[in-house]
Amino acid sequence: MLAERTGKIKPSPTLAVDSRAKELKAKGYDIVNFGVGEPDFDTPEHIKEAAIKAVKEGFTKYTPVGGIDELKEAIIEKFERDNGLKYSKENIIVSCGAKHSLYNIAQALFNPGDEVIVPAPYWVSYPDQILLQDAVPVIVETYEEDNFTLKAEVLREKITTKTKAIIINSPSNPTGFIYSRKALEEIAEIALKNNIYIISDEIYEKLIYDANKHISIASLDEEIKAKTIVVNGLSKTYAMTGWRIGYAAGPKEVVKAMTNIQSQSTSNPTSVAQKAAVAALRGPQDCVERMRREFEKRRDCLVSELNKIKGVSCRMPAGAFYAFPNVAQFLGRSTEGFEINSSIDLSMYLLEKASVAVVAGSAFGAEGYIRISYATSIDNILKGVERIKMALEKLK
Ligand SMILES: *Cc1c(COP(=O)(O)O)cnc(C)c1O
To answer: Is residue 210 domain-shared with residue 293, that is, in the same domain?
Structure first.
C-alpha cells in the first residue's frame, strides 16, 4: 500500500500536456507547442564553458549542502544589485531548482492543518507541495479586471488563526502580470499584522516588458524582509532549466531548517551546475537582455494576433513568457465529436484537431482561460494562432 499522501497529488499538468505533445510529434504530427514552460534559447556559451572547466578541473565531488560559498556570494551580490536587499550567507540556500527551494520551504514551515494562501491563477506546484505537508492550500480567486493580482480586502477575509503563509508570484506564471508597489505594501501590512510568512516566487523577475518594474516585497522594509522568503533561480533568466539551480533567501532560522531538510534528501545541487551558476550571475548580462527583447517581440505579436480572433480576449501581460487569454465564450459549444465544457476539453480539442498544445486554465485554478507560452519562434506563433482561430471558428 502506498502512503496516503501519494493520493493527494497529481503529476504536474503542464508537464503532462508537454509530454502528450511530444508523443504526437514523435508520431509525425506537426505540433505547435505552446505548452512549454521553458525558454527555447540555448544556455549562453560562457555559462557552458564554466561548467566544462569545472568538470575538467575535477570539481566533481560533494559540496556544502546549501551551495558553495562562491555561489552564495554571487547570489548575495545579485540581491543587492537588483533588489536592494542585503543578506549574508546564512540567509541563502541553493537548491536543485527553485521548485526544490519551494519544496524545502513547505517542509520547513508547514504543519498539518496549517493554511497557506495561494492566489489563483497559481503556478501548478504550489497547492500540491502544500498538500504533501498535510497543510491546506486556501485558494483565493483573483480577477482579470485586476490583472489577476490579489486585492487586500479579499486577502483579509481569508485569514484565520491557522494561516501560516501566503505565496506571491510576480511576474506570474500563468498570467504574466506583476504586483504594483501599492498592492505589495497592502499585502505586507496584512501579513505583518497577522504574523504570517510571505513566500515570494520571483523567478521571472528579469523577464519584464515595457516600462514595468519588478519589486521584491522583501525590499519594502526590514520588518517585512524578516517575514519573507524570496525564491529565485537560474532556469528562466539564463535559459538553464536543465541545470537545476534555484535559491532562496530568508530569515536564518528558516534557511537553516531548509538546509537540514536538504541534507537529508538531495544533499548539494550538482557541483558543476553551481560553477555554471556563478558564471551566469557574475558574467556579462547582455545575453539576458537579448532574450528579454526577443520575448517582448513575441508577446506583442501573440497578443495582437489572439485579439483578432472573434470571442477571444487577451490582456497584455507585463512579464514572464505566457499569455492567458479568456476563452470562456467557447465553453458550451461543440463540433463533430467534440463537446467543449471546460478549458481541458478545449485544450484537448486544440491538440487533437488543430495540432496546437496549450495548457487549460483549470490546471492553474482558473476556468475559462488557456495558457499560451511564447517561448517559441514568431513563425510558430503565427502558425499556431492561425490554427487556433480556424479550430475555434468551427465551434458552434
Ligand atoms: C519554472 C518555475 C519555477 C521552477 O523553476 P526551477 O528553478 O526550474 O525549478 C518556479 N516557479 C515558477 C512560477 C515557475 O514558472
So the answer is: no
Domain tally, the chain: 2
State the Cα–Cα distance between residues 342 and 228, nearest whole angstrom: 36
Ligand 1: does its nearest atom lie under 6 Å from the Cβ of 66? no
Q: Kindly give the distance from the C-alpha atom of residue 244 to the centroid of ligand 1, in angstroms, as a whole number.
A: 10
Where does the pLDDT of residue 37 fall: very low under 50, low under 70, confident under 90, or very high at 90 and above?
Answer: confident
**pTM for this predicted structure:** 0.96
CB 324 within 8 A of CB 371: yes
Q: Are 226 and 250 in contact (CB under 8 A)?
A: no
Nearest to 358 by CA among 34, 38, 36, 40: 34
Mutate to test the pocket of ligand 1, among 75, 124, 173 (most ligand atoms within 8 A of CB): 173
Parent domain of 224: 59-282
Q: How many CB atoms lie within 10 A of CB 34?
A: 29
For residues 187 and 95, state if they share a domain: yes
Q: Measured from the CB, is residue 202 less than 6 Å from ligand 1?
A: no
How confident is the model over 328-353, as a mean pLDDT? Answer: 93
